Amino acid sequence: MASGEDNVSSKSIFIGSALAIGGNLLISISMNIQKYSHIQQSKAEEEVHYLKSKTWWVGLVLMVLGEIGNFSAYGFAPASLVAPLGTTTVIANAIIAVVFLKEKVRYQDAFGVLLAIVGAFLLITFSTKEFAELTGSELAFYMKQWPFLVYLVIEVVIFCVLLYVQMKYNVENVVVFLMLVALLGSLTVISAKAVSSMLNITFGGDSQLGHPLLYVMLIVMVATAVAQVKFLNKAMKSFEATVVVPTNFVLFTISAIISGIVLYREFYGLTFLEIFMFLFGCVLSFVGVYFITSNRKVENSEEQLLLTNADLFPGFLSLSSSKLIAVQPGNALSSNSAEYPMLMAKSNQDPALNDESEPIVTDR
């Protein structure tokens, strides 16, 4: 009997991993299709609104499908596994840049992709196999346990202190901004996993639609995701994408792993070796992302499509809503490359020009 349960768990892990990888891959492809659509429109003799472009709509549909896949992954696999698999987006962008944009293969890109792939393999291999979907009642029981309550209080206190310091002293520090994003992200992970699991159970025949926790978690998921966009955009305004991308990925992944361990007990039952190899896979993914994104110069040209700012943030819980903003032209009636300020990494600009060179972002 135990063997049968292990097979079910392993199958769920595989499905969740496939959904996470496939979802991030679709998101990466979709963004590049949308950018390609804008660039083609900028070259056209007659200016047309991008919403009338079939290519743009294809990209949007793929993005929606990718988001659905990424979200669904949390219903099948541990959060500590799904979050690090966001490296798929970075890997995909690096490969597309070489294949379709004919960019030269940098040694560090190849090395980074190799590390990220090996890291993903270790993550899937040594992730917990004791995974179960939780009903609303089971989730409520888990949330009443003292480890989670202590974790939640500590997280809220740290968030409030960081927010107070940032607002009162106008602190412009990338770690402060991205710590705020990561703390919110851990709540988004918890709520997204809860909603996804409860929906999966509902589709399986045991309806959870009458449990109030489903709607509470849905509200928390949306609210924290929107709040992350604000702080992520602030970080993007002030710092280079090559700094923000790897830092955000590391902090977000760590927060997702910790939240999974504390609430969902995802490391329970693992041996020391399995935990070590899993964490080693995370480290390889972190280093791989760093190598792929570091020392990458972004030119202000129509040909530059990839590996820029919000595109590199992996997955549903890394705010693809900000990605959607990034690939749309600043002026809805124009597609000229000069109106893609978020597609360019920050450079040392004349302070007098800051007002004109600010990225167009949504801060609400």
- Computed over alpha carbons, the radius of gyration is 21 Å
Structural class: mainly alpha
| Helix segment tally | 13
* Helix content percent band: 55-70%
Beta fraction: under 5%
* Gap between N and C termini: 52 Å
User: Largest beta sheet, briefly?
Assistant: none
What global shape is seen? globular
How do the SSEs run, as a string of H and E?
Answer: HHHHHHHHHHHHH
Poorly predicted ranges (pLDDT <50, ≥5 residues)? 1-5, 299-314, 317-322, 331-364
Number of DSSP strand runs: 0
What's the average pLDDT? 79
Transmembrane segments: 12-34, 55-75, 81-101, 110-128, 148-167, 174-192, 212-231, 243-264, 270-292
GO molecular function: magnesium ion transmembrane transporter activity
Family: Belongs to the NIPA family.
Main location: membrane
Labels describing this entry:
364 residues; mainly alpha; 13 helices; globular; disordered N terminus; disordered C terminus
Question: What would you note in describing this structure?
Answer:
The chain has 13 helices and no strands. The model is unreliable at 1-5, 299-314, 317-322 and 331-364 (pLDDT under 50). The protein is 67% helix and 0% strand. It has 364 residues and is mainly α.
Can I get a quick summary?
This protein is an all-alpha fold.
Question: How would the blueprint of this fold be written?
Answer:
Layout (H helix, E strand, L loop, with lengths): L1 H42 L10 H20 L5 H4 L4 H13 L7 H20 L9 H8 L2 H24 L4 H30 L8 H27 L2 H24 L7 H22 L26 H7 L27 H4 L7
